[in-house]
Structures are given as structure tokens and as C-alpha cells.
Amino acid sequence: MSTILVTGGTGTLGRLVTERLRADGHEVRVLSRHTRPYAVDLREGTGLDAAVTGADVIVHCATTLRGGDERAAKNLIAAARKAGVAHLVYISIVGIDRVPLGYYKTKLAVERLIEESGLGWTVLRTTQFHDLVLRIMEASAKLPVMLLPGGVSDQPIEVGEVAARLAQLAAGPPAGRAEDMGGPEVRTFPDLARAYLRASGKRRRVLPVRLAGRTYRAARAGGHLTPERAVGKGTFEEYLAARSSGARR
């Protein structure tokens, strides 16, 4: 079995990837800013060489909305080259080349760094996780009226399914751009909001709102969706039910 380093290994996705790889018999190193023995801030790179040395594969799940992902990727790639890592696996997002969102532009730049790194690489793009949609709904439901982007749909996917696919890719040879993964259903935001309201028992009016700008137009056009790759199984309702059941235990 391989020695696999998972960056962001304590996060929503990274934790599940780590669990899956260990269950499959791999030796897994968890890298995060506060988890020893591999407590590393990728943006600074201090201690990164020690974490990477001896690793066969890196699964790069670490990311932040606060900036610095490109710098972190450059540091990780340099350390991987130095250590002779055979395979770098990166989790990305469907539509980063079609929706001009700042964070998406950063993810696309990281993809290009990895593709040009000289390392064996695999990039997996997926649609948004269920928990992100839930956070949007919870934030919107703080008001008496849920204001949601009109004409925009989403295709949420179960994070555990993505973790399983990443673990599978990490155990195999470099695949380049892997086939995208989308959730099982393309749903409008009002439809997802009604599912959230039913599950939470809340009463809110749902109001679609038309927005302006290139990002909104790209989202309305479905640039972040992949209906032809609706390979996910778990629905948003099933996610909400499982979350509610877990909270009651």
C-alpha cells in the first residue's frame, strides 16, 4: 500500500478522504495548520519538506476563501518535486473555466500550476457539496423572506461520494483530468429552499431575485452544472434527513 499525504485532512472533505484511505490500508499523513506532526501552513511552507518526504501520493484538499491558494500550491509542488512524489491529486470545481467568480479563477490557476508541474497529476472537478447549499439556505432563512438568485439552479453532491472517488483516484495511476462528478439532480434554488424549509419546519416566503453581472449570467446559463455527469446518488433531502437524525442522537 502507499503512503499518502492529505492536505486539509481535517476539513469537510479531507477528513473523509483520510478515513477512506486508511480503511483501504494506506498509510495516511494528515496535513493541516494545527494537526501534528504535520502542522503546516502551506502558504508559508515551513515544515512542508518533512511532511512530503517519503510520500508516494499527495491528495490536495486544502483551500481557503481568504486567498493564498496559488502560493500554497507552488510551495506544495516544489516540495513534491524535491521529494520525488509520483502523483498529485487535486479536488476542483465544475465550471471554474465558465463562471468568472474570483475563487473559481484561483482554482483554475491552481489547476494550471499542477498541470505544468512536471508531476504525475489527477484533477477531479465536482459540483457543490450539500453542506454549502445548506449554509446558503440557513443564512437566507435568517430573514422573514428567503431572497435567492432567480433563474439559478444547483446540482449538489454528497461529500462522502466525492471522498470515495478521490481515494480511488489516489490509489491509481495519474489520470489527468478525471471525468467530472455532479450530484444526482439539477434543482432550482427555490426548490432547494422548499426542501430545506420542509426539513427544518420553518415557514418562510421564498423570493427569487434577479441579479446583475457576468457571474450571475454565467450561473443562470448553468456554467457550474454538469447534468451529463449526474453520477451522484445522495439527494439533498437525504442529506438533510441524515443530518437531522444525527443531531437527535
From TrEMBL:
Domain of life assignment: Bacteria
Gene3D superfamilies tied to this protein: NAD(P)-binding Rossmann-like Domain
NAD(P)-binding domain: residues covered: 8-131
Protein's name according to its UniProt entry: NAD(P)H-binding protein
Organism listed in the record: Streptomyces atriruber
Organism placement in taxonomy: Bacteria, Bacillati, Actinomycetota, Actinomycetes, Kitasatosporales
